[in-house]
Fold this protein.
Amino acid sequence: MKKITISILSGMLLIAGCRQTSTETNNKTSPTITTEEEKQDSAAAGIELNKGEKWMVDTNMMTPIRNMENDIHSFAQHEPKDYKLLANKLQTTINLLTSNCTMKGKAHDELHKWLLPFIDMANRLADAKEKNEAEKEFRNIASSFTTFNIYFE
């Protein structure tokens, strides 16, 4: 129950702190994606490119995102795996990220399409009761950074 409450509050903070103020438009262009899993992830999220280009993410937003990506890469290379510790670290960084949101407009909206499912994955990782559940969520989280890097810079 605590994780659900945290997830809902994080999502609400993210949305409330980052209201769209721009009415900019873009061309709906899909990138070339190499694997079926990435196609499914992107299609489910509905993320669009910015007229065929990646969206620019503000530095104060990109820093925590890159820190989480580095944590994932580092975690993958070390044993033993402490998924709860990783989940706590991700949640701390997500809280920092959502409380410092400064993006606006279409770039902000597209980032939310990636970030909200990412927050859900991090919560499921934290809630995983069995190692195979945690491993699955870890793989999903790692895969989400592939999607992130297709659409954002």
